Amino acid sequence: MTKTDDWFEDVWEHREERLYPKLFGSVGDAIYPLSPAIFTDTFRQEFDPRWLHCGVFESPPNSKHASWLYVTSGLSNAWEDDEPDPTSPSGLGCEFVFETSGQARWAIVRMLHVMAFQILLAHGRYPDRDVLELYDRIPLRDSLTPEPSELTWLMVAPPAGTDRFQLDSGEVELLALVGITEGEAQHAREHSGGILLQRLQEADAFPVTNPQRGCIIL
Predict the structure, then answer these.
(1) Which has the closest alpha carbon to 157: 199, 214, 107?
(2) Exposed (0-12), middle (13-18) or buried (19+): which is 124, by Cβ within 10 Å?
(3) For the chain, which terminus, N or C, has the lower number of CB atoms within 10 Å?
(4) How far is CA 215 from CA 29, 48, 150, 180, 185, in A?
(5) Which parts of 17-104 fold into alpha helices (H)?
(6) DSSP structure class, residue 51
(7) pLDDT in tens, 70-81
(8) Domain assignment present for 155
């Protein structure tokens, strides 16, 4: 199915060319899209070609944020709607943001995998799993970066700034990602993700992920 409705294109353009610059400053002209290989090789799943329109923008430090910021675009595309409905979630109803201490190709790769996972979850490919929500933890089973790092998990958290935005096609929740260690993941299991997030904030380990930091849980 190919969307040709003017409203659909208008909403897409509004998000990427007006709303994102307002929220995040410049996101550049390049988007890093999902590839077929992420679905077929990494997740061993067939894919809908429409999913390949989803991708990640990179926003360098600017007046809106001092970090390098990465934001997904496309999860909130309302592909299944025949007409815009501002009272419902737009598409999957979410987009992800991830802030890092430096420019990071690995951050784009990690976000693309999270996007693909969320899409597959939303389309019932893992019947025993719900879509990613606040304080869910994603085991990476390896270093967050190509270089050694104690951060081996990602946690979903409320963003430090705007947590949702409105499109003509519906509401969209912004979900932040933050890298955490095995010890921090265990702390969240024992005490809650909200308590871990508070400790990360106190240690200046959120919202910006620094892959060189150590575990904040003694």
Answers:
(1) 199
(2) exposed
(3) C
(4) 36, 39, 7, 8, 10
(5) 20-24, 36-37
(6) G
(7) 999 999 999 999
(8) yes
b/e map 183-208, b = 16+ CB within 10 Å: ebbbbbeeeebeebbebbeeeebbbb
Structure letter (DSSP) for residue 150: S
End-to-end CA distance of the chain: 53
Residue 76 in domain:
yes
Q: What average pLDDT score do residues 50-61 get?
A: 97
Domains in the chain, number: 1
- What is the spatial distance between Cα 150 and Cα 183, in angstroms, rounded to a whole number? 9
In a domain, 87, yes or no: yes
Give the residue from 180, 187, 173 showing the smallest Cα distance to 205. Answer: 180
DSSP string for residues in 175-210? EEEEEEEHHHHHHHHHH-HHHHHHHHHHTT-SSEE-
Instruction: With 0.90 as the threshold, say if the pTM is over it.
Output: yes
User: Is residue 153 a contact partner of residue 138, using CB atoms and an 8 Å limit?
Assistant: yes
CA distances from 168 to 9, 13, 57, 117, 188 (A): 11, 12, 21, 26, 36
Is 218 among the domain residues? no
- CB neighbour list of residue 154: distance below 8 Å, 6 or more residues apart: 110, 114, 137, 138, 140, 144, 177, 178, 179, 180
CA 19 to chain CA centroid, Å, is 16
Q: For position 4, what pLDDT does the model report?
A: 61
Which residue range forms the structural domain that includes residue 111? Answer: 6-209
